[in-house]
Amino acid sequence: MKYRIYAHRFTLLAFAAVVLAASFFATGCGNSAYDDIDWQLTIIGDEEIVLEFRELLDMDSCSGTSGFFTTVGVINGPFEIKGIPLLDICDLAGGVGPTEFVRVSAVDKYSMVLSYNQLNGQFITYDTGLHEVENDGLIVALIYELDDKPLTEDMGSPLRLALIGDNVLTEGMYWVKWINKIEILNFD
Questions:
Q1: Is residue 36 classed exposed, middle or buried when 0-12, 13-18 and 19+ CB atoms within 10 A define those classes?
Q2: What is each CA distance from 170 to 61, 96, 139, 140, 166, in whole angstroms?
Q3: H helices within the chain, ranges in order?
Q4: Is 3 exposed, middle or buried (0-12, 13-18, 19+ CB in 10 A)?
Q5: What count of Cα atoms within 13 Å lies in the side-chain half-sphere of residue 160?
Q6: What value does the CA radius of gyration of the chain take, rounded to a whole number of Å?
Q7: Is the predicted pLDDT of residue 149 greater than 60, yes or no?
Q8: What pLDDT, on a 0 to 100 scale, did the predictor assign at position 17?
Q9: Can you tell me the mean pLDDT for 17-29?
Q10: What is the pLDDT of residue 27?
Q11: Given pLDDT bands bounded at 50, 70 and 90, which one contains residue 36?
Q12: What percentage of the chain's residues is helix, strand, coil (to nearest 5)?
């Protein structure tokens, strides 16, 4: 009888521990790989918005398999990548029209200007042999995950511009690292 009481108490304690742990992780208080990232993204369009990295993670994401190659032909990837569509981010500051461009800038002052057509996925794509291949349109995104892991510092953590497709490569100049600002520009 004495052992049954102890066994019952142990079962209740174990159950309580599981419930507390589940509650802890369900409320976002767990040890996420992103918890320590202190990063802001400024979006300038019809209005200026500043988003914290955690706010970006709450947005709808997209994923695919893509990579890039350097100007000397070094292939990186394809990787499984995950991020937020750039057009969705631009919509927060008023959106992008057909006569507008988007400049994506990084903390190291490198930037890339994308046309409306490019923002809608119109790029030349290649296979891993660097032969041009057809694509059904790419998704231009700010990625935060590479092969199911957060980006590393040398891969552009926490945010990198990427072109998400279906097992294709694109030119590396578009894969801007360390993104901290997006500007919607009108050249009418």
A1: exposed
A2: 20, 23, 12, 11, 11
A3: 2-26, 53-57, 86-91, 116-119
A4: exposed
A5: 24
A6: 22
A7: yes
A8: 46
A9: 44
A10: 42
A11: confident
A12: 25, 40, 35
Residue type, 108: D
Number of other residues whose CB lies within 10 A of the CB of residue 64: 21
- Kindly state the average pLDDT of the residues 121-127: 91
Joined tokens for residue 166: 């279906």
18 Cβ neighbours under 8 A, 6+ residues apart: none
Q: pLDDT digit string (tens) for 125-145? A: 999 999 999 888 899 999 999
pLDDT tens column, 44-98: 999 999 999 999 999 999 999 999 999 998 999 999 999 999 999 999 999 999 9
**CA torsion sign, 111 to 181 to 171 to 69?**
positive
As a whole number of angstroms, the distance between CA 49 and CA 60 comes to: 18
Q: What structural domains and CATH numbers belong to the chain? A: 1-30 (no CATH), 40-186 (3.90.420.10)
Q: Give the pair of three-digit tokens for residue 162.
A: 């990427």
